[in-house]
Amino acid sequence: MIDTAIKKLCVYGLQKGLIQPNDTRYIINRLIDTMGLDSYTDDKITYTDEIELEPVLKQLCDYAAQNGIIEDTVTHRDLFDTRLMGILTPRPSEVISEFLEKYCESPKIATDWYYDFSQNTDYIRTYRVKKDLKWVYSNEYGDLDITINLSKPEKDPKAIAAAKNAKNSSYPKCNLCPENEGFSGTLTSPARENHRIIPITINDEDFFLQYSPYVYYNEHCIVFNSKHVPMKIDRAAFSKLLDFVTLFPHYFLGSNADLPIVGGSILTHDHFQGGNYEFAMAKAPVEKEVVFGGFEDVKTGIVKWPMSVIRLSSDSKERLVELADKILAAWRSYTDESAFIYAETDGEPHNTITPIARRRGDKYELDLVLRNNITTPEHPLGVFHPHAELHHIKKENIGLIEVMGLAVLPSRLKAEMKELQDAILSGKDLRADETTAKHADWAFGFMKNYSDINAGNIEKIIQNEVGKVFSTVLEHAGVFKRDEEGKAAFERFCASV
Description:
This protein has 497 residues and is α+β, with helices and mostly antiparallel strands. Among the domains are: 1-69, no CATH class; 231-384 and 478-496, no CATH class; 409-476, no CATH class. The protein is built from 17 helices and 15 strands. The chain has helices at residues 2-15, 24-34, 53-66, 74-88, 92-105, 107-120, 126-129, 157-165, 235-247, 280-283, 317-332, 400-403, 412-426, 434-437, 440-447, 458-477, 484-496; strands spanning 133-139, 142-148, 198-202, 205-211, 221-225, 252-254, 271-275, 286-290, 299-303, 309-314, 344-345, 348-349, 351-360, 363-372, 406-409. Strands 3-4-5-7-6-13-14-10-9-8 form a ten-stranded antiparallel beta sheet. Strands 1-2-15 form a three-stranded mixed beta sheet. It has a two-stranded antiparallel ribbon with strand order 11-12. A hairpin with a 5-residue loop joins β9 (299-303) and β10. α3 (53-66) packs across α4. It is globular, with a radius of gyration of 25 Å.
């Protein structure tokens, strides 16, 4: 049985082009060694149907757990099946050579191949990504994407306990460092033996291209600095973004902001996120044209979006960089007490920008999302952050992906929304149970808006109401509000640049 699983994994590698027929004996021997076997018998079966990877890896991990090769936890299984896939994965030089050869045909052919490759090696675990719950909420701002993230496996309690006792290591320095390529992983760092990265140059600096293993949207990629240096929004960052979309015109690229609360989860390593996807924000129209002095040749305007976005458009990268840098400098030092915007308090800076670059034919487009991370006793997690009444749905930072119109919601919501549905349909007291109690005020608020809530429509109703919450989250994160007073304040800032 285990011999058949080894054979199937080898056949999978052949089917996906990860290995060649002449590699077969070598690969089988590597797998035999990894599985702790001292013999192997070929089943002599010719497999013509496409091998499904997940059950094969499960069988191999089951055997390893049953025979004491690994502990039977999610973490140890992930480390082990990545080691198995690493045996099938070509060396970095081969991958880079293939990518560059295809890039000569076209950037899209190259990324299409690399994206498929990242799935075939199981670096992107497609069978997990498919578990994510996804739907669309349409409102005045367009079609907002809603996702409940289920692709990150829950940590096993035994693995958590073991991780506490694990030896600390500073190698790699973080999960984005290029040293992760081929890294076997630990209880606290994911295995990356099947991970391959592509070197690129942007703004005369060495960067790498890879895909996100969690793929929140189509071809979700990460572009990261070859050096472990902190993120920074500055003139150079704008140049990097625009250089990248020159290299890959079918991709967008954006950056999280560089301050806590409004920034991303990894501020210690300079990186960007992009991909082949058009978010609702990118589709949103300019509702108010703006002219910045000295930049009459650059088309600019305020975007119809719940957050505060200035869109720049030009066929000149250099002009966009110059204007973006000017707007950033003005925003860093901008205070408008009437709009509760303070450049700093007690020496702590608050203003920064989340930038996103894309191509529109021959033109370059750069969206500048104004951010501010000030806190108050009433809003200790941030004034321009989801307010407390929304934390039962979304409490986490509003980063680049959310800014553009995709809600990445915690996995807990799948079970919580099901419990809420059942409680509403059965007429239970929503406040009697801890899980439903935190959603009770919200549920009572929207239930009165529906004349009939039944088993056939309740799931859609709750999805719609979660979408409304996300839209409100974005409004909370907007530094200039969408009322007349807020719009006037936004225009005052533009006039000050």
